[in-house]
Design brief:
- The chain is an alpha+beta fold.
- The chain contains 4 helices and 8 strands, in the order E-H-H-E-E-H-E-E-H-E-E-E.
- The chain has one domain: Alpha-Beta Plaits, CATH 3.30.70.
- Strands 1, 2, 3, 4, 5, 6, 7 and 8 form an 8-stranded mixed beta sheet that branches.
- Strand 4 and strand 5 form a beta hairpin.
- Helix 1 packs across helix 2 and helix 2 packs antiparallel against helix 3.
Length: about 160
């Protein structure tokens, strides 16, 4: 029986480990252990603290959903700040550093998964973030920028194929 497509507005977060392939090439087990530790001790509790949920993990990446862009952004900034502090004293070639993108958009709900253009835009926003940074789209409710760009580290970046 076909069920109607369920859509909703959400704050979508896409996060990815910077240099994951290189890290795994140097030390697979150590990298995996470090990522697991960061998730268990910091990232997963932060997500829960701010009312988000982990939609899926992709080895070096996370797709998250939050009911509020404020909660999503606060979670991302707090996690990045604490990850940077944890990386102090760690050899640069062994640091676990994330890029994080935050976007508010329409999603399609498929069981526990989320799909659609909002998810795709969040992933493209994440790719614009500096290592250790958070990029936040300027597209969505409450956007007063009037453009299709995204705020990135105090500057403005353009996404390929923007939809407004």
């Amino acid at each position: 029986m076909n069920q109607p497509t369920q859509r909703r507005l959400a704050a979508i977060v896409s996060a990815d480990v910077v240099g994951y392939s290189r890290l795994m090439g140097v030390d697979e087990l150590g990298t995996l252990a470090a990522i697991r530790a960061q998730r268990a001790e910091l990232i997963d509790p932060k997500i829960a603290e701010h009312g988000g949920r982990i939609v899926k993990t992709m080895g070096d990446g996370l797709l998250l959903e939050f009911p509020s862009v404020v909660a999503a952004t606060t979670c991302a900034i707090e996690a990045q700040t604490e990850l940077a502090a944890r990386n102090d004293g760690v050899d640069e070639d062994k640091r676990i550093t994330f890029r994080i993108g935050v976007h508010v958009g329409d999603i399609i709900v498929d069981g526990e998964d989320i799909l659609g253009d909002g998810v795709n835009v969040a992933a493209r926003i994440e790719a614009l973030a500096e290592p250790g940074g958070v990029a936040i789209s300027g597209i969505g409710p409450g956007d007063r920028s009037g453009g299709s760009g995204t705020e990135v580290g105090g500057g403005r970046g353009q996404l390929p194929n923007p939809r407004v």
